[in-house]
Predict the structure.
Amino acid sequence: MTERSGLWGHADFLRLWAAQAISAYGSRITRTALPIIAVSTLHQSEAIVSLLMALQLGPGILVGLLAGGFIDRSRKRRILMASDVIRAAAVGSLTVAWFLGYLSIIHVMIVGAVVGGATALFQITDNTYLPALIGRKQLAEGNAKLESTEAIAEITGPASAGYLIALLGAPLAVAIDAVSYLWSAVMLRRIRTVEPVPVKRPPAQHLGEDLKIGLRIVFGHPIVRPIVLSHMVWSISGGFFMALYTLFCLRELGLSAGTFGVIVGLGGIGSLAGAAISRRLVARIGLGSTLLLTSSASLACALLIPLAGSPIVANTFAITFALLAAHQLFSDGFAVAFVIQAVTLRQTVLPKEVLGRANAAIHVCTSGLLPVAAVTAGVIAELAGTRTAVWVGVLIGLVSPLLLLPLRHLREIPPTASTEMPAAS
C-alpha cells in the first residue's frame, strides 16, 4: 500500500468498504419501507408508528448493556458477520409473510426490533474493529471514506426506495435489503487480516460491571465527556425526528412516497459534501471549532422542517420542497462532518482494551434516549398535532452544541491513549 493511494490501496479495508457499501444501500430501503408499510399498507396511527420506531431502537439499548465486554473479549469480524446474517433472515421474513398473506403490524414490529438489535451490535463492533484493521493513524481517512459511502447510499437508497416501493410494494422491496446483508457477510468473510488475539480476561462477575467500566472511561475522559453529553441531547431531538418525519411529510404535507424518497436522498448529497470538507475544516479552524460549527449548523438547519407548509411561509409545493431539500442538504452535511471528527477522536483517545465497552456505554447513553423521545413525540403529536411535536424536537436539539464549549480551544487530536485499564471501583 503506497502513501499516495492511502486506504484505497488497503485490500482488507476495501473488503470492509464493499461490505458496508451494499448493505448501506439496502438498509435505506428497509428504513424507508417499514414506516410506509405501517402507514400505507397497514393503515396504522401516529402512536403505532412512533412505537414501531421505538421498537427498532429499544433492543439496541439491551445490546449496549450486555455486549461491550463480549466484544472486547471476542473476534470482532465474526460478530459483524453474524449480525448481517441475523438481519438478512429478519428482513427476508417480511417478504415471505407478505407473499403468504400473513403480514401484520406485530410482525413488522418484531422485525424492526430484531434488526435494531443486530444493527446496534454491528455498529458497536464496527467502531471497535476499524482501529484494529487499519491502525489509528488512518482512522480519520477511514471514517471519512465510510461516511462518504453512507452518503452515497443516502443519495441512491431512499430515492430509489420510494420508487421501488411504488413499483413492487414495500414488503417485496425489502427483499433487496436481505440480499445486501448476505453480501456484506460474504465480503467480511474474505478479509484476510488476522485480528490481534483478544486479551484473555475473566468475564464480568455481573452484567453491570462491563457497563460500569465503559461509563467510567467515557465520562471520566475530559474530551470524550462533552461529546457524549452533546450527543445525548442530539439523540433526544433525533428521536422526535425519527418518529415524526415520515408522518409529517406524508400526512401533514401530503407528499408522495416517491417525492419523499427524493427529498431524503438529497441528504446523501449533503453528507457526501460533509465527508469531503470535514478534515479541511479541522485544518483551517481547528478540531474544537469544527465540532462546534458543524453541530450548531446542522441542528439550526432543522428549523426548516416545521417551517415547511406553515402559515409563516408560502404554502406551495415548490417552497415546501425547497425547505425540506435545504434541510437534508445542509443539516446532513454538517452532521456527517461532525460525526467523522467525533468518532475518530474517541477511537483515538480511548484505550483500545476497553474500546468495545466504551462504545457500548456511549450507545446506551445516546441510543437509549431515542425510543423514549420517539414515544414522547408520538404522544405530543396525538395531543397537540404533528407540527407542534416537530417544533419541540427541533428546539431541544439547539441545546446540544452548548455542551461542546469545553472543547472550543482543542486544535487537533491529542496523542494516542494509554493502554491502562480503569481501576475497579
Remarks:
- The chain has a mean pLDDT of 83.
- The CA atoms of residues 305 and 324 lie 6 Å apart.
- Residues 317-349 form the longest helix (33 residues).
